[in-house]
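Good morning C.,

I know you're traveling, so I'll keep this short. The sequence:
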Amino acid sequence: MKSLSYPASQRKLLFRGALEVAVAHPVIRGPCEGYLHPLTILVFSPVLSIIPAMASDSAPSKTTLLLLIAAILVVVAFVLGLATSYLLLGNKSALVSSTAPSAERKADLALKPRLPDDMRDVGQQAADYFKKREFNEAAGCYQRIIDKYPDCLYAWSNLGVDRFQQGRYTDAKAALAQAVKLSPLDAFSWANLGLACYQLRQYEPAIDALEKAVTLDPNDAKSHNYLGCCYSQAGEKRKAEEQYKKAVELDPKFGDAFFNLALLYATATPPDLMQAKACYQQALDLGVAKDERLEKLLADPVGPQR
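The tokens, ready to paste straight into the viewer:
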């Protein structure tokens, strides 16, 4: 009786896509500066338009003076309204913060992480080192930020990505675990924590982390693909298929996810060659390189006898 033989050299095809780490994320962007609220512009524009008119008139008309007085009254009302709203919202925030658990307050603060102003140059140095693949130097910069600001999500999450790129998966896991501790609602850190666990072959923790990532950011195709890889390694083929399909639904040009679907169908019991070939062709059309091992599976899905 023939049975599928799928040696380790072929099984590692399941890792396709899992080595890729996204480093660009809103979490590493600096705060928006120099922003002027549109309402402020709307309120102050009458004053700004009247001033040139007054400057050009040797004797301001009664109409111009009335318009100026009206504009000033509008500005005063606007400022008073802002002050009242600030006081009301401030009191409400104080009430909520006094009753909410400290972990929730910390998570809420960490949802909008920012690089401290005095560490911007260090953060830029780290980014420059990372682009040049000088990962030790980049890690040193992130550690400098952490030494001064131990609760800086920016530094912890990027340190984890940096260690991942070095192949130091245990260190990456530790840094990213600290990141999700600081911000339990940060999908970026959860996704990369899942990848670190995956590389350590800790599939159950990897699944837990990536499930949190796709719950927090359900439109991230890469996280769905990585979760599919974890499910496949854990033997949950149906769930793996669902995640790969979700990945290509979100990103129809995601070649690696099509490749993983092709591999999943080619190694199913029994193999689904029609689906496997269709997905493999999709992957090729999207720029994924040909893979002789998968093509051999598609030509001889049963494989050699044991």
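Safe travels,
E.
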